[in-house]
Design brief:
It is built from 19 helices and no strands. Helix 6 runs antiparallel to helix 18 and helix 15 runs antiparallel to helix 16. The model has no long low-confidence stretch (mean pLDDT 86). By secondary structure, the protein is mainly alpha-helical. It has one domain: Growth Hormone, Chain: A, CATH 1.20.1250.
Length: 398
């Protein structure tokens, strides 16, 4: 298969993932509020989904790392099938809150769970001869999110939240078909004998092997406490500034479209700035992004805040992926990607547990002040982790 087709296929996987990420994650509050949930109930639901996901991701990664039946590709296919079926159920079940709670929590959790597997899939196939431009594909995934975000708000206002479920069904069907045909090159190296693959480490052994990474995971939790606070409750922030679902779409479009140039050029950027330095830079960008919102009085300041996505999330995600790929042994890489996503997820757990309650009782500004304080702590921890601690017990990134 020509090199360009590998990137095209991987881009399709990313694009469908992030279209659905917009409808499931970015619009979670919109959907659940429409189904009669309170802000506190939304926070609890998302927290439950994130807690399960945080535990589930490393568990699945450990199984995949053992080179058995469950591969990255197969797990993606299983995941999208679950999301598709769950979305179909939600099309017909509207008034039973317990069912909506369980099914939405499941699809929210499953989509988070297969995100690190998507990243690991790329590096797995690259090592077998598939020439995939990860940064470009990941950036175009963000662009797909941006386009979806730009139009979905108006469609929701015109036709209701059911459109979110229809989009989920279509994107998951396309993803399944693409994943089904995502087969390794015939001329690739022979598969490793499982007997020759180093044993996958347990949690304690893993964290001891990668001390800087272990501490950085704490910083990641702090960054995504703030990041998820903004994203999960963005509609409430925007409404306080005089906007609505349309402005929600514009805000999501802005932050997502800015990810494309950074991610597409990440290979070039990494030649100038090491991945550990980029991770520290991204942490301070997360801090600036949420700090601006404390003082926001109009949508212009909201859009200014979102523009810092260019240096925050857009830098963090590819830098973290390359950091794991460069500093960890092959037998640990799926788990390493999963731990990053688990830390992101745990940040979401704490954010969901705190944000909904604080929002209901104290308002948006207090919520944002708390998020800023946590993110500031993360920036300090990230600096210490990347600058003062060994990256790898055996090999240190240059």
């Amino acid at each position: 298969m020509r090199n360009g087709l590998w990137t095209l296929r991987y881009t399709l996987l990313n694009s469908m993932y992030f279209v659905a990420f917009c409808t499931i994650h970015a619009c979670a509050a919109v959907f659940l509020l429409d189904r009669g949930f309170s802000n506190t109930e939304v926070g609890v639901l998302l927290a439950v989904a994130n807690i399960v996901s945080a535990v589930f991701q490393p568990f699945i990664a450990g199984i995949i790392d053992k080179k058995g039946f469950l591969t990255n590709r197969r797990f993606i296919m299983i995941s999208v099938t679950v999301i598709l079926l769950g979305s179909v159920i939600l099309l017909f079940v509207k008034d039973l809150k317990a069912v909506v709670f369980a099914v939405f929590a499941l699809i929210y959790m499953i989509q988070f769970a297969y995100q690190p597997v998507m990243t690991a899939l790329c590096f797995e196939y690259q090592k077998t001869g598939a020439k995939i431009n990860y940064g470009l594909a990941r950036g175009l995934g963000s662009a797909s999110f941006a386009v979806t975000a730009a139009i979905i708000g108006k469609i929701i206002e015109a036709r209701g939240v059911t459109i979110l479920l229809i989009v989920n069904i279509v994107t998951m069907a396309v993803t399944f078909v693409v994943a089904l045909t995502f087969i390794k090159p015939k001329d690739s190296a022979t598969e490793e004998d499982p007997k020759n693959v180093p044993a996958s480490r347990g949690l304690t052994g893993f964290l001891k092997a990668y001390p800087a990474f272990a501490v950085f995971l704490v910083a990641t939790i702090c960054f995504f406490f703030a990041h998820n606070m903004i994203n999960d409750f963005m509609i409430q922030i925007i409404r306080s500034l005089g906007g609505g679902e349309t402005e929600l779409g514009y805000a999501n479009f802005l932050q997502a479209i800015l990810e494309l140039p950074v991610m597409a050029l990440i290979g070039f950027v990494l030649k100038k700035i090491s991945s550990d330095n980029l991770l520290v830079i991204s942490g301070f960008a997360f801090l600036i992004k949420i700090s601006i919102l404390i003082f926001a009085t109009n949508m212009a300041m909201m859009y200014l805040s979102q523009s810092f996505q260019l240096f925050a999330y857009a830098v963090f995600i590819p830098a973290a992926a390359f950091y794991v790929s460069k500093t960890m042994s092959e037998s640990d890489q799926v788990k390493g990607q999963a731990y990053v996503t688990s830390a992101i997820t745990i940040g979401g757990v704490f954010s969901n547990l705190v944000s909904g309650v604080v929002l209901d009782h104290f308002g948006i500004r207090v919520m944002l002040i708390i998020g800023t304080a946590v993110c500031a702590a993360g920036a300090v921890i990230a600096t210490v982790a990347m600058k003062k601690i060994r990256h790898n017990a055996a090999v240190k990134e240059g």
